Amino acid sequence: MDVAEVQDIVIVGGGICGLATALALHRKGIRSIVLERSETLRVTGAAIGIQSNGWRALDQLGVASKLRQTAIPIQRNLEARCLKRSTLLETLANDLPVGTIRFGSHIVSVQTDPITSQPILHLHDGSVVRAKVVIGCDGVNSVIVNYLGLKLPKQSPITNVRAFTNYPDGHGLEPEFVTIRKGNLLLGRIPIDDKLVYWFIARRETPQDLTISKDAQKIRCSTLESVKGFPREMVEMIEKCDVDSLTLNGTRYRAPWELLNPTFRKGTVTVAGDAMHVMGPFLGQGGSIALEDAVVLARCLAQGQRTSGINSTTSIESAIDEYVRQRRTRLVQISTKTYTLGSLLETSSMFVKLVCIVVMIVFYRDRLGHTRYDCGRL
Ligand SMILES: Cc1cc2nc3c(=O)[nH]c(=O)nc-3n(C[C@H](O)[C@H](O)[C@H](O)COP(=O)(O)OP(=O)(O)OC[C@H]3O[C@@H](n4cnc5c(N)ncnc54)[C@H](O)[C@@H]3O)c2cc1C
Would you call 207 exposed, middle or buried from its count of C-beta atoms within 10 A (0-12, 13-18, 19+)? Predict the structure, then answer.
């Protein structure tokens, strides 16, 4: 006997993209549910830099003014602020109708109903959800990407350490994003407010990373070891960091050419955020791009619904195709910029460096050009 629950729109994954998509749909009067495998909002990575394209999307979602109060501007011309990840996720979640997010809901597989052609989601606890639309916002190890028949993203040789440092008497730093590079190690520092500073280190992975990644004290010791010779205040910032916020993670990426052709749709199932287009952290744009996805996808689905209603499979499919069409050029452009920048930082080949420099000069002369993008009205 089939005891599956039936839903209109199911979003898999309650990270930045999943919550933003649910909120965008809610603002358009469309109900969805978010199935998140964790038991609470998952906030690994301490903080996130949001640049002006991301702020435009947050304006459309109706949460930008609340978030602006939590973080100081760190750039003069184009808006850029660094938000605590927990603040961003909680703000998105708090504006959703009660019951939208279901924690502890781990999707293990998806299949197509042979009669209706609609997706059927299987959860870890054996329960089943049938949906008219499924949006995979389930990050780099996406079950939905598997269902669409796409390759999972590649592992990059870059590892990141991220944390907060709290200065109870004020840090006294300028409101700016400072980076220092020595060899293959990049250290970045961004103030969030007058007392809290977010910092990260990007460096080549080492064989020890796997063993230390679960132990914050060991991450701190190895990080201090790697920044010997850096300015004193930077070393102190790492010494005094909030150990609970400290994380060490590898990174994944999808190469720009992998975004050129796929339909990113199978029936009424699609993907958004990192699941669709994870890119190296060299531009700090993955979160902002995920917010843009949410606005565009909700706008397209709402237009489709206005024309033919949520019950028309053809109209849902056309709406998803329109979403993919609107996103593809943007994604290929920004992913190429990230990829080129990453290759420039990572390669030891002079020839590759030269090619990257030429690409940057010819196509990306405007260093902040990608942040001027406007995903449009919701
Ligand atoms: C080191 C580093 C620094 C970065 N810095 C920045 C920055 O400064 N600015 C910026 O804009 N971006 C930055 N990014 C990128 C940004 O963090 C991501 O692009 C963004 O978090 C993607 O959001 P998402 O919702 O698509 O995926 P995720 O945040 O990965 O969320 C996916 C969610 O899906 C859930 N999930 C996964 N599988 C399942 C399943 N089977 N069933 C149910 N739930 C599931 C997960 O638990 C998770 O909550 C950075 C990334 C890295 C690695």
Answer: exposed
